[in-house]
Structures are given as structure tokens and as C-alpha cells.
Amino acid sequence: MKRLVFAVSVGLYALTSAVFVAGQDSERTPANWPMIGGNSGNSHYSNLKQINRSNVARLEVAWKFDTGEEGGLETTPLIIDGVLYGITPRQEIIALDGASGKLLWKFSSGINGTGPDRGLTYWTDGKEKRLLAGVMNFVYALDPATGKVITTFGKNGRIDLREDLGRDPAVQSVALTSPGVLYKDLLIVGGRNPETLPAPPGDIRAYDVRTGALRWSFHTIPHPGEFGYDTWPKDAWKTSGAANNWAGMAVDQQRGIVFVPTGSAAPDFYGATRVGDDLFADSLIALDATTGKRLWHFQGVHHDIWDRDFPAAPILVSVRRNGKEIPAVAQTTKQGDLYVFNRVTGDPLFPIEDRSYPGSTTPGEVAATHQSHPLKPEPFARQTLTEDTLTTRTPEAHEWAVKRFHEMRNDGQFVPLSVGKDTLVSPSFEGGGEWGGPAVDPATHILYINANNYASIGALAVHSGDSPGRTTYLAQCSICHGEHRAGTTEFPSLLNITHKLTTEQITAVIHDGKGRMPASPNLQGAKLNALLEYLQTEKDLAPTNASEEQAASAKASSPSPESSAALMPGAHIYEANCAICHGDNREGIAPSFPALIGVGDRYTDAQILALIHNGKGRMPPMTKLSQHDLDDLMRFLRPLNAEAKTTDETDPSAAQYSMTGYRRFLDPDGYPAVATPWGTLNALDLNTGKYLWRIALGQYPELVAKGMPDTGSENYGGPIVTAGGLLFIGATNFDKKFRAFDKTTGKLLWETTLPFAANATPATYEVNGRQYVVIATGGSTMNPRGPIGGVYVAFALPQ
């Protein structure tokens, strides 16, 4: 018998009715767009209506600003009092004149930023003003008027997100994909963490916006005595990772509640090291914004082994029931579901059903036997596949898809991946719902959601143990680059990578990240060296049909510390600055100069850095080394410290199985092997839970030329809606279009072609009585054949 469940836990708390809202004036001024979601509740809504249904077809380019950089842009800019604040692909911060696009100032941290950076945070108390910017592992406080660092914030103007986690900061990787949110004088942040172990925990942290001091932390991997501790193995908080908030948050400023959606625990697809439900992974958590105390929570996926993160910031809405307005919070999912809860109590406003699902056949894995399923609204993305839902683009493509379909396991949602057997996953691992999030019209209670509607293929592979390097590769890299290093439709092949990049360049990418690849500074010493040597092999070690001779020639052995040290990027820095005294191999020159082998066993990182900066005895201070050089030098010194303090049996990163890579179910021509539409835009009445309209979103230009204009396409970045009756959205990967729809009917009213695909959410604002709509265009990391760049484009009506 089916059970209806209300999977929330409510804590006791007191709410104050009178609170000070940071940036209140700028948030309530229609001319501004002061937060990436438009306001604290992420409504993506503007009261501006100069541009409306009757004149939107006359829109023209008002200005363009080319960052001159490549790498893609996913940023929604902020616009406050006529100034636009944005980010470049290299994570430099810019201020532009909102009316002309003229550059006012640019801030460069000196760090070569990589990875998605979707926005900034603007704070004011009416007197002081601050712009908070995430650059890699740091958050900087800048003066919005000048772009100068505010040195009283944190340490010389920045806080290090790798600190305050209870683990060695030097080997952590935490960066802001989405900007922090504000409550009073608190900056509340999550972060992007690695999806394989070792990974830092996904603590939610609040910092004093003036000083940068940590004010509170909420442990998403509970510590002993905290709620949810028993949903993990004992002491999991010491070694497990992720369960992090990368998608953004929403704040109810009146009630003092911050709503935090989290992602899966690490590793994503094999959970033997984290048996249990794993609270607070894959959860929507309501926290007291002043203290960080949990008020209520809902876990959307128990023991996630499908990477089903909550993919977008929640959106604060109101729902009319029995003539009353109920304050609510809505959360989209990668599965294509929408959950709606009472903001205060956590009670679901549409029924949620608890359903049974099969266990796992993979040794060591203990899959959850029950998962939640909302009965209403119906999914906004395709969750089941049959022969009738396969592509009919051509007879040949359909025939191929049917054959491939029957070769795979296809049992619907929450079916654990298998070893050696492909499983269809619909919607894809990316979603479904994506990070752009929905928009809502507060007057009509209509929610607008864009969605992806294609499928992925997943499977697990056993770690062969052919070499230490391959074991590390399977645990850390194969999820994206594939079991055999051949790459996937989304990620490049690593075969012969050493013909394209030097060892130093490869190590820099591993440690610093690039594009969608997160930084992995935790890979050090013997593990790093074994991985580097494995990447140098010409042939992969895994294919079972490889001859013994080929396997033997490709098999990598871990090099000695002395010979492998030269592979590290810091080797040249050491050679230029240190080797003359401490020897080429750090063995020292007795009796005058000590050996540096094992120096990390004698000194902490802070003490080593102090010696480098200040000198000691006959060692002069080295004050001219850049921060990047210091980081590389520290990494170079670290490998010869005790390299094997744990064995594979005790190392949580040495999982026995790994996912074979993100693979899409595509036909031989590279198009989705499922039926159209492959991308949609949906309008949903929140009062009734019923859809008002649904249209295909996105095109493939070459298919349009063949008479197929309504395929829809993959899309990333969300919509905005306005009082002028319009919905604006870019998002589509292949056609580089920016579109305006009638929000009531879904009718297309205007479109234009952008310099690059706009995988970003637009913003609208007003300067000197003129309304603008602006969007960041940079190309799509999901379309490796498309151009990439970094251009902001603003549109307005002719003057």
C-alpha cells in the first residue's frame, strides 16, 4: 500500500517581526537588479514595463562589452544605481556604465580563475557598501566605487574558503559557483567541492560582512551529537565529503530564514564508504539565518548514487489555498520534479509519496529502499523511456536507437547503476531542472521553468588495480574522462595528453582546475606521481581484449620520490631559489644546510611559509615569490613528507568501483536518441499545480534547414519575467539565440542571435528612464564544437 509522507523535521525557533534587511533600498528599487535572482527570494522578476508585448519586437543592441577572454560566461550581472558589476571568464571583476557599457574599473586578484562563476554579492547598510566576489578558493571584499580591495575584511581583503573546515586547508578545494547570500550583516556561503574523495565537507558558513570573521557553521555531514549523525557511518564527518551547496540559496528577510539546497555526497556514484541516508546531502534545509540552527529539512534523495543534486537555488513564492496566501518555497530537481513547501513549517503543499525501489547488485553498495516522489505537479521533464519515446529524426536513427535501447537496463528512476551493464537514466545526469532555476510572477503565481529532456547512460567499473596510477585515475578522473581515458561527449580524451601538455601543465590543471573541472589540490606525493606516470602511457590498461604484451608495456609503476619530484611544477622554483643550498634532490649539504626531505614532518605549512618569507640564519628572506609560485613550491616540498600514511584499505578515496563516465544517449549523428522536444519551456500555475503551456526551447540550425524547427535543445541558464508581460531567456546551446516570449501564452515575440551561446540568466534594469535587458554570452562548455568567449550584450528600445 502506498504511503503519503511529509519528510520534514521541524525545530523550535522564534521569529522576529522587525528585521533590518541589508541592501533593502536597492532590492526594492525596480531600476536595480541587485542580486543574481533579482532579489533575496530569487523570483527572477522585475516590475519594469517600458519594454512590453507591444514594442519588444523593436529591441536593438544598446551596447556590447567584450572581455577579450575565452572560457565561457555563466554570470548574471548586478546593476545598482546605473552601474553594472560582472565577472570575466578568468574571474576578473568589472564595473561598467549601465547606459553605455563603458568600463569603469577592473579588479584582478592575480589568480588565474577557472570554473563557473555565476555572480556577485552586493551589500550596503545605507552607509558602507561592499561587493563580495568569489575567485577560486577566496572571497574578496571590494569597494563598488573603485574596485579596490577593502583590506579590513578577512586577511588583507579576502577570506579563504578552505579554512574553518576542520581539515588541512592546503589540500582542500572549495570555490563559489554561486555567490553568497545576505542576511543583515552576514554573508552566507556554500561552495563547489570535488565529487570524488578526498573532498572537504559541504559546511554552510556565515561570515561577518565587515570583518570576514566566521560567525556560524552548519555541518551538512553531522558531527557526533548533531541531528543526522546516525545516517552516516561512524566518524564519517572526518573523511566523507561534499553534501555541499553549489546551486545558491534564498533568504526570507522578514522571517530570518535561509533556504539551502545541497548536492550529493562524495563519491557521487558509489556509496560504500557512506552507507546510510546521508543527511544532509540532497536536502533542502531551512536554517535560522542569525544562528545557523536547523529549523526544518526535506531530503529529496536518500543515499544518492546518481548525482541527483538539487540543481538550482530555491525560489520564494506564495500559494493561494482556501482564499489565503501561504508563504512557500519551491525547489526544482534534476529529475524534473518540483517540490513546494510552507516556508515556516516545512509542510509540503502538494502530496509527496514514499515509493520502494530495488537494491544494488554492486558489492559493498547499500542503496536506499525508499525514495520520495511528488504526486503533483507532474514532472516537467521526461522520467521514463519506451520505444515510443525514442528518436524519429530519421528511420536509420530510430532503428539504431531501438537496438541500443534494448541492450541497456531501463527500469526508471532510482535504479542503482550496475557493473558491466549500461543503464539508461532519464532525464540525464545534468537534468531535468538545471542551475538557472525558475522565474515566478508574484501577481499571478505562475512559475516558469526551462528543462532539458534527453537521457544519459551510466555504469560502474571495478578498479582493476593494474597500477597505482590507474587506481587513482579511476577514483578521481574516470567519472568525466571515461574508464579508458577516451573522453565522453562532454569531456575531452586524455589519451596522448602528454603530447599536448607538459607535465607541469597537467599538474597545474589537476591542482587548479579548469572549466567544469574542479581543483584537486588533495592529489599530492606518490598518488600524484603515479597518476602522472599513468597518463604518460600510450595505451590504456583496462580493455580486456588488450594483449598481455600491450598491458605489460603500459603498466605503470610508482616512481621513486627523487625521480618523480622533477614532475612537479614547483621544481623549477626550487631549483632557482633553494637547490644551491639544499641540494638538487633536497638532500641538504652537510653540515651547513639541512635536508628538506620530510620537512613537513618537522614544520607546519605556516611555519615553512614564515621561513620562506622571513628567512632564518644564513637563509635570506624570499619576498619576491608570487602567491602562485609559493603554492607550487609548497606542493613540491610536500610529496617527500610521509607519503603513505594510509593504505588503500583505510584510504576513503580508494573506492572499489567508479562510474564509467558521463555519457549521453546520442544517435550516430550526435543528436539525442530520444524523441523531441529535447528542451522545453514550461508555465505552471502554483495554485493548482497544473501546467498552462509548454513549448520547445532551442534549435539546431542545421536541422531547421532540413525542416525540423521545433526540436528543442539542451539549455542552461534561466528565465526572467517582467511586468511588461514578457519572459526573456537565452540558455540554448546550439543556436546562440536570445528570445522574448509572451508570458501568458508562450508565443515567441522577438529573438536575436548573440555572439556566443548564452548559458546565463539575463537581468533587466533602468538608467535615466531607459529600460535595458542584458545577458552574458560566452558559449557552452556542453557544446565543445561551439565558439567560446566572453561578451556582455545589452538591449533597449530605440531612442
TrEMBL record:
CDD domains: PQQ_mGDH. GO terms for molecular function: electron transfer activity; heme binding; metal ion binding; oxidoreductase activity, acting on CH-OH group of donors; quinone binding. InterPro entries: Cyt_c-like_dom, Cyt_c-like_dom_sf, PQQ_b-propeller_rpt, PQQ_mDH, PQQ_rpt_dom, Quinoprotein_ADH-like_sf. Its cofactor is pyrroloquinoline quinone. Residues 464-539, 565-641 form the Cytochrome c domain. Residues 546-566 have a biased composition (Low complexity). Keywords: Heme, Iron, Metal-binding, Oxidoreductase, Signal. Belongs to the bacterial PQQ dehydrogenase family. Coiled coil: none annotated. It comes from the Bacteria. The keyword Phosphoprotein does not apply. Residues 1-22 form the signal peptide. It comes from Edaphobacter aggregans. Gene3D superfamilies: Cytochrome c-like domain, Quinoprotein alcohol dehydrogenase-like superfamily. SMART domains: PQQ. GO terms for cellular component: membrane. Residues 543-566 are annotated as: Disordered. This is Putative pyrroloquinoline-quinone binding quinoprotein.
